[in-house]
């Protein structure tokens, strides 16, 4: 299995790269700045330097792969943006052109909320996550939309996974477990074309 991971220098993306390597996959890490990829991973992956807003570099990264992970983020910046949804559109267009069918994407659990219940400072970024989700839903691909709650630095532990839930099953998930799920779900057809709610099992 050969996968390309977009956003692979973010906290979730790095964990997805590690999870894919652990499964023995060939990994392409799509990055704007290769120096941000941890050194111990750099020699184990094919590093592709590019920008998700540049369609050509996205198409080159997807060619010859079997699956795609989208772990795009804004590094904590909450200003209005369309970068994540425009990047997702470019990824989907390239997947169609190169006949790659399966994509998992990390999106915000705020999409479970009524629009007026989203905390004000997250409204702009949630709007872009919503646009990302619309791109996936209309793609015709085997997409998995992971509506992630707060992503923590906690060590890995058991997770709760719900398919097409009404609300998030919990308030937080470890970046390690989220990254691993994004990779594992690519080969789990029961998750195709579904929204996933997931969280860590609460500590006793």
Description of the molecule:
The protein is of the alpha/beta class. Helix content is 32%, strand content 25%. The strands form 2 sheets. The chain has an 8-stranded mixed beta sheet with strand order 3-2-1-4-5-6-10-8, with helices on both faces.
Q: Helix- and strand-based class?
A: alpha/beta
> Helical region count?
6
Distance from N terminus to C terminus (CA atoms, Å) equals 37 Å
Strand content: 25-35%
Could you spell the SSE succession in H and E letters?
EHEHEHEHEHEEEEHE
Q: Give the helix level as a range of percent.
A: 25-40%
Profile the largest sheet.
8 strands, mixed
Mean pLDDT: 95
E-strand count: 10
Strand order of the largest sheet: 3-2-1-4-5-6-10-8
Instruction: List unreliable stretches of 5+ residues.
Output: none
What gyration radius follows from the Cα positions, in whole Å? 16 Å
Question: Which outline best applies?
Answer: globular
Report a brief summary of the structure:
The protein is α/β, with parallel strands linked by helices and about 200 residues long. Helices cover about 30% and strands about 25% of the residues.
List the helices and strands and how they pair.
Blueprint: E1 2-6, H1 11-22, E2 26-31, H2 39-42, E3 46-49, H3 55-62, E4 67-70, H4 83-98, E5 102-108, H5 123-137, E6 142-148, E7 150-152, E8 159-163, E9 172-174, H6 175-184, E10 194-200
Parallel strand pairs: 1-2, 1-4, 2-3, 4-5, 5-6, 6-10, 7-9
Antiparallel strand pairs: 8-10
For this entry, give a set of tags:
alpha/beta, 8-stranded mixed beta sheet, two-stranded parallel sheet, 6 helices
